[in-house]
Every structure is written in structure tokens, then in C-alpha cells.
Design a protein that fits this description.
The structure is a single chain. The protein is an alpha+beta fold. The protein has a domain at about 55-145: Rieske Iron-sulfur Protein, CATH 2.102.10. Helices cover about 15% and strands about 30% of the residues. The protein has one helix at about 10-25; strands at about 55, 65-70, 75-80, 80-85, 100, 105, 115, 120-125, 130-135, 135-140, 140-145. It has a four-stranded antiparallel beta sheet with strand order 2-3-4-9, with no helix packed on it. It has a four-stranded antiparallel beta sheet with strand order 5-6-7-8, with no helix packed on it. Strands 1-11-10 form a three-stranded antiparallel beta sheet, with no helix packed on it. It is elongated. GO terms for molecular function: 2 iron, 2 sulfur cluster binding; metal ion binding; monooxygenase activity; oxidoreductase activity, acting on paired donors, with incorporation or reduction of molecular oxygen.
Length: about 140
């Protein structure tokens, strides 16, 4: 009879390795990402409505303005005490305008410039004015309409 090359030690070692591999294969891991933390609740409005305010009137310079990209708004003050609002989305290719400087709302993507008075195109490539948006001035607060 031919002699078998397998020894008892080889069989036991191989069986233990096979059992360990089988147990590892049966183990499951929860690969689902944990949910993001809940957002902080909005601050309660005070008597002046400051929680809803876009800005204070003093924050908007005369002849200039401020961009509120999260609200898709640009608020300007063409002359003292007159506040206007326009969409912050450039009518050229949909970029969000980046700033208000030198009396113009400026799209930093392609260089379009719009008038702070009425959103009209001052310099292209945009050909269409920024659409006007509603705001309300309540005392020193500028609120979305």
C-alpha cells in the first residue's frame, strides 16, 4: 500500500484554518454610514424679527450691496434709504454673483456686471438683467418678502 503524505498534524492544522476562514466569512459588518447629525434648530425670532432678517440696513453700503447666496439674493442701496433686491443668479450661465463693488453687482465667473439701481446689464457677456426680488425694510432690519 502506498504511504499517505498527510499526517495527523497537517489534517488538524488545515481543518483549523478552514474553520477560521468560514467563521470570518460569516461575520457581517454594518457598512451603512451613520446618519448626519440633526441640524441645529433655528433661533427663536425676537420682537424685531431679527431671526428672519437678511441684514441690518447699516450693513448695506450706499451705492453698494451685499450678496446672500443661500437666499439667492443681492440686496443693494443705490441711494441712501432706498433698498432693492435681485436674484443672485447671473443670467449669463447661472453662476452665483460674487460681489457688489464700484456700483455694480459683479459675476466673478465670466465678468458680467449689473447696475445696483435696477439689475440692468452694465457689461456682458450677460444680455438679460437680474430679476428683481421682494424685500421689506422694517426699521433697521431688511427682511425677505
Amino acid at each position: 500500500m502506498p504511504h499517505s503524505a498527510l499526517t495527523r498534524r497537517a489534517v488538524v492544522t488545515g481543518s483549523a484554518g478552514a474553520c477560521a476562514a468560514a467563521l470570518c466569512a460569516c461575520t457581517t459588518y454594518d457598512a451603512r454610514p451613520s446618519p448626519p447629525p440633526a441640524p441645529a434648530p433655528p433661533p427663536p425670532p425676537d420682537a424685531t424679527g431679527a431671526a428672519d432678517a437678511l441684514a441690518r440696513t447699516a450693513d448695506i453700503p450706499v451705492g453698494g450691496g451685499a450678496v446672500f447666496p443661500d437666499r439667492d439674493l443681492v440686496v443693494t442701496q443705490p441711494v441712501a434709504g432706498e433698498f432693492r433686491a435681485f436674484s443672485a443668479t447671473c443670467t449669463h450661465q447661472g453662476c452665483t454673483v460674487g460681489e457688489v463693488s464700484d456700483g455694480a453687482i459683479v459675476c466673478t465667473c465670466h465678468g458680467s456686471r449689473f447696475a445696483v439701481e435696477d439689475g440692468a446689464v452694465v457689461e456682458g457677456p450677460a444680455e438679460t438683467p437680474l430679476p428683481e426680488r421682494g424685500i421689506e425694510v422694517d426699521g433697521e432690519q431688511i427682511l425677505p418678502a
